[in-house]
Structures are given as structure tokens and as C-alpha cells.
Design goal:
single chain, Rossmann fold, 6-stranded mixed beta sheet, two-stranded antiparallel sheet
């Protein structure tokens, strides 16, 4: 299993004009050198690592939400880089118990290999969920309620999540540091302004913040970074009999898309040509126009 490289573990968020320490996971001396010029992925990585460190410095009790998909696996990788190989807060999996077997196998393997403090909490049954929601939204809302239960159980004041602005219109309205109400709700009409690297990282008493380190990334960025870093992926993302999953969720509300992409290079080529939305296989996104926003206002990711 690959380990984040010494260069990539450097203090990436330092200004370009200063010398930055280079520190490897294995014992070794510190080497000071001029910060290299950044390509696009280097810059994205540095910005995200800065957000991780900013959240860790400002908040008392953090958790990283691990959905097991490509985005949250990149998040785990970035967190390991940000903190020199060891994620200093729990990885929280809010489990609907309806994921694909390949996802659970991936979780169990890499939680151990990456040395994660994994916490698994379960969602309430469907009959406890608002019956006025459309079927897929109602199923997805189990995760919202499961997350609320986990917040009450652990008392987290910050949850780090791997959402991106480009994947869904409602998420495009998000902030990097996004305040949540006392019940976990999101006020889409009252989002704090964010200028450059100035964030509002002070949640109200009893509430929490959602922190989104890869909010500015695209689907193509995620795959290009996964390829460059050799981050493990779940095989469901690769074509099997002419179909693959672009977005992974619960088995009963997630469908594959037509694709012949059998490796990441082919996925990247496919993304440059396709006009199919990333979440086309998610049943939730094909229900009522406001279903997803209703869920997010109530606390969904």
C-alpha cells in the first residue's frame, strides 16, 4: 500500500517565497528547500491541506465523514498528508447497512491499513423517516437522522465532509466552513461570506460546523489526483460488462451508467467527452426538483 510521499507531506500551505520543511513518515532528517512551483493538483492539495489544518486548530472535537466513495477516500488521503501520516480525529461512517459489499470490504481493509480511528454508527429504520418525502429521498434521509444521532452521541463541533460544488446545484451554494443550526439544519439563505482564506470557524453554542476541504475540486480533479497518488479505489467505479458507477450510495437507490472505462486513464478521457451528470445514477436526483435541497436543509450532506 502506498504511503503519502515525503514531498507531499511538506507544509503545502506555506507561502511560495519561504523555505518549507520536508518530513517523511520514516525517521529522517529535515531538509529545507525552496517551495516548488505548483501545478494544478499541487495547488488544490495545498489549499485542502490548509483547510484541514485550520479546522483542526480552531475546533475542539472533529470527525471526518467517510462515505467510502472516491471523494471521501481522497479526503482520508489528504488528512493523512496534512497530519504527517496519522489522522488525528475519528473517521465516522454513518451506515445505512445498504451499501455494496465491495464498499464494506474496502472500509474494513483500509481502516486498518491507514490506521484510522473508525467509528461506525447506524441509521434508524425507514419507518421512522418522514413519509411525505419521495421514496429515494426518504431512504437517503435515514442518513440525515443517523448523523444527528451520531452528533448527539459524540458531541462533535466540526464534521469534515467531501462534498464538491460541481456535483450538484444545491451543493454549489455551500461554504468551506458551513454553520449548522442546533438541530443540524442548514440555512441556505444565510451563508457567511468567505474571502480568500478567511473563514468563520466559530459554531454557535451547541451547534456544529461542516468543513468542506475539496469543495473547489471537480470530478476530474478527484480522479486525476487519485491516479497521481495511487489512491486505492473500489472496483465498482470501473467498467464491468459495459457499465460502471460514477457515484456510489445505497444499493437500492444507486444505478450504474453505460461506460467502457476500465481504468482511471479511461475514466478521465470519458469525463472530457460525456454530457451525463455525475449523479445520473442516483435515484434521489430524479425525484422532485427540491427533494435534495429539502434534505440538505434538514442536515443531509
Amino acid at each position: 500500500m502506498a504511503t503519502p510521499s515525503a514531498t507531499s507531506l511538506a507544509a503545502s500551505s506555506a507561502p511560495k517565497s519561504v523555505l518549507v520543511p520536508e518530513a517523511a513518515l520514516a525517521p529522517g532528517s529535515l531538509v529545507s528547500r525552496p517551495a516548488p512551483s505548483m501545478d494544478h493538483l499541487d495547488e488544490l492539495e495545498a489549499q485542502s491541506i490548509y483547510i484541514f489544518r485550520e479546522a483542526f486548530a480552531r475546533l475542539k472535537k472533529l470527525a471526518l465523514l467517510w462515505s467510502l466513495g472516491k471523494d471521501s477516500n481522497v479526503m482520508i488521503w489528504l488528512a493523512r498528508k496534512a497530519f504527517f501520516g496519522k489522522v488525528p480525529f475519528p473517521a465516522l461512517h454513518v451506515d445505512t447497512q445498504k451499501k455494496f459489499p465491495e464498499m464494506y470490504a474496502f472500509r474494513d481493509q483500509y481502516a486498518k491499513e491507514w490506521g484510522l480511528d473508525l467509528k461506525v454508527d447506524y441509521c434508524p429504520p425507514i419507518d421512522e423517516i418522514d413519509p411525505t418525502l419521495p421514496p429515494a429521498a426518504r431512504s437517503a434521509a435515514r442518513k440525515t437522522e443517523g448523523l444527528k444521532l451520531a452528533l448527539a452521541k459524540y458531541g462533535f463541533d466540526g464534521l469534515i465532509a467531501g462534498i464538491r460544488r460541481d456535483e450538484e446545484a444545491t451543493r454549489a451554494k455551500e461554504r468551506v466552513f458551513s454553520p449548522r443550526g442546533l438541530e443540524g439544519g442548514w440555512d441556505v439563505r444565510d451563508q457567511p461570506p468567505e474571502f480568500w482564506d478567511h473563514f468563520n470557524a466559530s459554531p454557535p453554542q451547541g451547534a456544529h460546523l461542516r468543513i468542506h476541504p475539496i469543495l473547489h475540486w471537480t470530478e476530474e480533479d478527484v480522479w486525476a489526483y487519485t491516479q497521481r497518488e495511487n489512491i486505492p479505489i473500489i472496483p465498482l467505479y470501473l467498467s464491468n460488462n459495459g457499465k460502471r458507477y460514477r457515484s456510489l450510495g445505497d444499493q437500492d437507490i444507486t444505478n450504474p451508467v453505460v461506460s467502457d472505462a476500465s481504468n482511471i486513464e479511461e475514466i478521465l478521457a470519458e469525463l472530457k467527452a460525456t454530457k451525463i451528470p455525475e449523479r445520473a445514477g442516483r435515484a434521489l436526483d430524479h425525484e422532485t426538483e427540491d427533494a435534495f435541497e429539502r434534505l440538505r436543509v434538514a442536515g443531509y450532506l
